[in-house]
């Protein structure tokens, strides 16, 4: 298990580095967008390449930061459905969810993403818009994002199994209700007890 936890730590380090690095692309995208708008208004000219570059940059952030979002436990959850369950049950739900849903989907996307990218790369696919960009880098981002998400999924499975077995403390604070909600639930429980007596 120690070797697996070391692998998980290495995956987490790579994921965190990529996630933090690509976040800077938002600034680049905003600058490209602002520059494009200024040029369009000031000189009455525009370029599809600049517009498509904005899409590529936003897409890169969204796709390449997905694994980092999973690592930091900031992905979308339906906590209201699981908040009443025990911590161990929630850990099992996470583990089985990663194994049965996340990993098969990521593996399928990598399997389908490779020919999607490779065909575009071999054919030198270019945007249909006049002056548009080459398309294969965007398709490569899709493939890369699911490879990263698959790796992070493996890391999450290792960590969740270690948490369930009591080998490590939970590295994420998850499914915890805010103190105000817990106070309201306690008040509601007390009110129900008073009404019953």
UniProtKB/TrEMBL annotation:
Subcellular location: Cell inner membrane
Keywords, ordered alphabetically: Cell inner membrane, Cell membrane, Membrane, Sugar transport, Transmembrane, Transmembrane helix, Transport
InterPro entries: DctQ, TRAP_DctQ
GO molecular function terms attached to this record: transmembrane transporter activity
Signal peptide as annotated in the record: none
Topology within the bilayer: Multi-pass membrane protein
GO cellular component: plasma membrane
TM regions (residue ranges): 21-43, 55-71, 92-114, 134-151
Domain Tripartite ATP-independent periplasmic transporters DctQ component: 31-161
Task of the protein: Part of the tripartite ATP-independent periplasmic (TRAP) transport system.
Quaternary structure (record): The complex comprises the extracytoplasmic solute receptor protein and the two transmembrane proteins.
Family of the protein in this entry: Belongs to the TRAP transporter small permease family.
Identification of the protein by name: TRAP transporter small permease protein
Native source organism of the sequence: Ahrensia marina
